[in-house]
Amino acid sequence: MIEKILIFFIFLPLALFSSPKSGGNYFLTQDIIGSAGSNLLTGGNYSGDGVIGNAISMKLSDGNNVFEGGFFSHLVSTPANFGFSLVNVSSFSLSWQDIYNPGGSRYELRISTFSDLYHYLVYDSTSGYSDEFSNLTPNTSYYSFIFSNYMESDYSYFVSSVAVTLSAPVSSDTFVFKDIGDKYLSFEFPTPKNPGSSLASGWDSLGLPKRLYGLDSFLYSTTVYIAGGFDGVDYSSAVYYTHIYSDGGFDGFKIAGYLPYGVYGHKIFATKNRLYLIGGYNNSGVKNNVWGCLISTDGKISNCKAEQSLPSPLYLSAGGFYNNRIYIIGGFNGSAASSVYMGEVDLDGRIINWTSLNTLPSPRFASASVVISSYIFVLGGNDGANPASNVWRTQISSDGSINGWVSLNSLPVSLHSLSASAIGNKLFAIGG
Predict the structure, then answer these.
(1) Which CATH class, in words, describes the domain spanning 80-164?
(2) For 119, 142, 238, 268, which has the most beta carbons within 10 A of its beta carbon?
(3) By the 8 A CB rule, do 414 and 364 touch?
(4) Looking at the domain 177-430, which fold is it?
(5) For 303-425, where are the E strands, in sequence order?
(6) Helix (H, G, I), strand (E, B) or coil at 14
(7) How much is the pTM?
(8) pLDDT in tens, 244-298
(9) At 386, is the secondary structure helix, strand, or coil?
């Protein structure tokens, strides 16, 4: 009888074999996650690792060993193909792929408007491969970060992606005309959902022809007017102007014309091709005069003519312009004033009357004011004894009257003789 002897050769990768141990025994295991290996124990027995990612064995007193699952160190991998799968006005979705991490791995996501991982706004954790974030600001850059987490002990490196949420649409009935001239239209959105611009660079510098303080300025279409002021000796009557280009650049200041007299602490406004001078102070005292000068097509002004005077003399007032109405707020005439006056401009550009409105919560002069949409904001100023940090707001009604004043968060410091401006829905207090 002939017996057949079958001999099988199995070729195993070298990586599966552990190195010889003192006891001469080996224990081989398939490398499921991690690399196979063994650890020498006192009793001469060996344990294999790599079964569940570098599981560490524990030595017992009798030389036996067990698998210990208390610590893992198999270095989870970073998610792949991470990015935005859908972007809307106030939300976006993220997705990613990961085929190398063990079951139970979680993915930690952080969302920020900063380009670093640690200044995050929103945090989320998921075991899936997608996530959605909502209630975000339109037209805003969002940085998204993701990293893998296994059993709160192993973490991968993070990867990031950036996208900009879509701009919110503007309804046809949500904007109003702010001013209408012969060469331009000025309108604004009362309730903008999209964020405004911000100061992203340093200040450009453009010197005036002479040193002045107590002057006033006004932007009319694309022309900036600066008028009056005091140089320490004389009150100036000069009116300077410069044009602003579409890229934000501007020319040097040139003479546009002259006011009826030198003046300091006054207000100027421009609308319907007229430049207005209101109140102020010079050697003859505090003024309640109002003057109007025609603006020519090249930006220069004509001789000024008298308009309807203010109800009382004032200088160092704050002011605002909205919907063909001029507002003179507070001021000084021997003491701080709390009065608020509205001057209405007719179709021909003449100020036809002045009306007293709701007064300020307390007297102020040398404060700053800004009109944003239909709201007037008054910042800082002086109460007659000390600088103030108050910020007040009121809303303009359709007939030009104003509601009561509301107190808002104060300025960080008390300031008077400051300036203020608005860019989009952001309010800036400057100097003082």
Answers:
(1) mainly beta
(2) 268
(3) no
(4) Neuraminidase (2.120.10)
(5) 305-306, 318-322, 325-332, 336-345, 351-356, 368-372, 375-379, 391-395, 406-407, 419-423
(6) helix
(7) 0.61
(8) 887 777 778 999 999 999 999 999 999 988 999 999 999 999 999 999 999 998 8
(9) coil
